[in-house]
Design goal:
20% helix; alpha+beta; elongated; 4 helices; seven-stranded mixed beta sheet; RNA Polymerase Alpha Subunit, Chain A, domain 2; four-stranded mixed beta sheet; 220 residues; Ribosomal Protein L25, Chain P
Length: 220
């Protein structure tokens, strides 16, 4: 295992279920399930604070103890509370470090785009994560792309992204990542008032036909 791979100490859970999981969380421990590569699912728990540290550093590969052995695992799924703030459960999948895996990593656009110097120009980033394929021991924490040369009307697609060695994007090449466009200018309040005033100065059109018809009925 790489020295930079975070490690999580686990404790096996003898009892499972909502009530026991709640007790663990009250004690500062997070319920997890470890599975994969022919192993029976292992119900365990880890220190919640340590797990928070792993997730906050965008780690995907972690080392956990399974049946007394240090085992590489991928963070497959993390469930959060109703505030989407604190984790309540996590699934970890055992992997071989030399196998290819598909994971989603963060996508960060760096640099100051030249197009944003234009009045009214705005950057619209449609993707904040990117699905990639690579070896389990070569998962990047983040994909970064410099947008300094991006001008108004310019766009970035998945095929334009600079990928680290040994890492390939899974998403379609033509998928739009971000673009810069100029927002249409809104009319000034004075212009809106002038338009309203001009409309109020127009002569009122009277429906002559209906009026005459009404007058004829009245004469009868």
């Amino acid at each position: 295992m790489s020295q930079t791979t975070p490690r999580l100490e686990t404790q096996k859970r003898d009892k499972i279920g909502t009530r026991y999981a709640r007790r663990l969380r009250d004690e500062g421990r997070l319920p997890i399930v470890i599975y994969g590569h022919g192993h029976d699912p292992v119900h365990a728990s880890v220190d919640t604070r340590e797990f928070h540290g792993v997730v906050s550093h965008h780690a995907h590969l972690v080392e956990v103890m399974v049946d007394g052995q240090a085992t590489p695992c991928l963070l497959k799924d993390v469930q959060y509370d109703y505030l989407d703030r604190d984790p309540v459960h996590a699934d970890l999948a055992i992997v071989n470090l030399d196998e290819d895996v598909e994971v989603e990593v963060g996508l960060e656009l760096t640099g100051d785009a030249v197009g944003l110097k234009t009045s009214g120009a705005m950057l619209d980033q449609l993707m904040t994560t990117l699905a990639v394929r690579c070896k389990a021991n070569n998962i990047p924490e983040m994909i970064e792309h410099d947008i300094s040369a991006l001008d108004v009307g310019g766009s970035i697609h998945v095929s334009d992204l600079a990928m680290p060695t040994g890492v390939a994007a899974v998403d379609e090449d033509e998928k739009l990542v971000a673009h810069i466009a100029v927002q249409a200018e809104k009319p000034e309040p004075d212009e809106l008032d002038a338009d309203a005033e001009a409309a109020s100065d127009e002569p009122e059109v009277i429906d002559k036909g209906k009026k005459e018809e009404g007058e004829g009925d009245e004469k009868e």
